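note to self — DONT lose this again. spent like an hour looking for the file last time. sequence + predicted structure for the chain T wanted, 270 res
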Amino acid sequence: MTKVAYLGPEASYTHQAALASVDGKSRHYFQGLESIPDVFAAVEDGKFDLGVVPVENSTEGVVTATFDLLANSSIQIVKELCLPIHHQFLVKDLKEEVKVLYSHPQAFGQTRHWLLENYPECEHIESSSTSAAAKLASETPNSAALSGILAAEIYDLKVKHENIEDFSDNKTRFLVIGKESVNAGTSSKTSLMFALKDEIGILYDALLPFKNNQVNLTMIQSRPSKQKNWEYIFFVDFLGHISEQSASQAIRELQDKCEELKVLGSYPCL
């Protein structure tokens, strides 16, 4: 049996991603954990075989906790998923006035304009996940939650407003993490992180190996190194598997320009 940890509790969007990440041909045990660091720790400690965490939203951008943990972990990315995210405004009683609204910060960000227009006076209280918000709303008078339709079913809540995200094509990218690397398939993506040497024009020089070896970058992000002010580490995704000649050559050329470089995983591409 494969044990899968995810950012919970039950009915979170990450729970839905975890269910979608498996092929159904083998038995799986799923457990929601309280935070993204908890998911990483559970996989690193060997308590779970795989973990599922959010990494990027099409409206609000990156989930910084996931990037920071990838930089300092031995965990590998083994798969990615991209799911449509539709937020429901959930209440216990449709007739009750809503004074407090619970949700995860990402959900608040993805519904910011709708909330300003429709509930400008409502107090916002952040929760560890959208499903945790639904649980709170089910227990608290005069409250509501931004969450998914599965949470409404589990926590016996009613949908007062449906699909209130500011952008209808709202999607979140999730990563499946584990300890085992993945062999090259018909279509792969590779993720790297690197810290550059302190030299003039070094970022430009660091990107040239990808162009020169015809490797297509699909994402680049920077995060503070947390070692020294105004120093950064970079994360990139590119199409191709680490075992392919063009990709391995680009990484070898990049290595000369880095203080640190780590391959975070090569995995099936969406």
